[in-house]
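Subject: Sanity check before I submit

Could someone independently write out the structure tokens for this chain? I want to compare against mine line by line before I put it in a report. The sequence has 229 residues.
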Amino acid sequence: MTGVGIGNSIIAGHPWRYSGLEQHNINLPDSFGQICYHLALLTNFQWFDRGWGGQTTGQIRARFLRDALAESSDPGDGDGPVTLKQKPDFVVLEGVVNDIAALVPMDSIEGNFIWMSSMLYHNHIRCIALNCVGQGYNVFNSAQLNMITQFNHWLASGDLDSLDVTVIDINSFWNSGVYGGVSPWGNDNLHFSSFVDSADGVHFTQAGYDSVAHIIFRVAGLPGQTVSS
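---
Independent answer below. Compare away.
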């Protein structure tokens, strides 16, 4: 079995690490503080990091056939038409925060998620979708923060159940579901725990990325070693 993580800087591991894809060296292995590195340790099979910082869901979609489905497709990003030798069994799909920064309409964001989830479903690949982080990002205005809430509510609504998508709530590292709400980890959007990078309020610390991988492993019921809650 194999897995792929595809998304933006959260999958890539910023600001501590960058994916091999971003560095145009797809054989570069991940290391501590990158989600795919920790998932590989937990599941005992290989995971491929296809994160690219700053990308919107439209840009992720443009390279999705190549980076998630192992099809020959060149999106023109300098990494050629092939980055996987075979279709993976699992894909962790993440994105959205850059769409919100760029004021991409919600129907476009949801449409991209539906398309990518559908492509995985029809290729018999298990889809594990992460919701959107960023309530602590002090550049966002109230309308953008509301967009995060709107997307996360949509993702949790069950609209993707028919595509067998497993939704993972990583936004709960930031708050309890509303701006200013305290999370189980003690975050209140102003005072961050050791899991959240307080320098920007949108990325994880290296320990935080490790914890995200453990949550994905446990909630999605991935095969591998037994991990306590």
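---
OP: Matches mine. For the report I'm noting this point. The chain has a mean pLDDT of 91.
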